[in-house]
Automatic annotation (TrEMBL):
Gene3D superfamilies: 3.10.450.50
Pfam families per the UniProt record, alphabetical: SnoaL_2 (PF12680)
Entry protein name: SnoaL-like domain-containing protein
Domain of life, per lineage: Bacteria
Protein source organism: Longimonas halophila
Domain SnoaL-like, residue spans: 16-112
Length: 119
């Protein structure tokens, strides 16, 4: 297992890019995870797992994903990841977006993550 937050972030991102979104979630997200996106706040691993499963199961086409930038503050346990995503989601349609994820890490797992859309 990786020692630094940067190594964990890089592994998490690589697994997402390989399509192992749910496996990466299980490994790197804490039981008390809080995730925020579009003014929606989900608390706890169970609620967030359900959301992630719905997202993955709703993907009808995943055209592109790219990590554009990563910054990590090891001392404070904070990581920033800028993503480019292009996919089709059942019931939503085509989605092309840039977003930044701000992650707060404790004991080798993410305890809080907030997503900010860019542009």
């Amino acid at each position: 297992m990786s020692d630094t937050i940067r190594e964990k972030v890089d592994d998490l991102n690589a697994r997402i890019l390989e399509g192992d979104i749910l496996g990466a979630f299980e490994e790197y997200y804490a039981e008390n995870i809080v995730m925020e996106e579009d003014d929606v706040r989900r608390e706890g691993k169970e609620a967030n797992r359900e959301y992630e499963e719905q997202f993955v199961n709703g993907l009808t086409d995943f055209r592109a994903a790219e990590v554009k930038a990563v910054a990590v503050n090891e001392e404070d346990g904070v990581a920033f990841v800028e993503w480019y995503l292009d996919f089709t989601l059942e019931g939503v349609g085509d989605v092309e977006q840039k977003q930044t994820s701000v992650q707060y890490w404790e004991d080798g797992q993410i305890v809080h993550e907030k997503f900010y859309k860019i542009g």
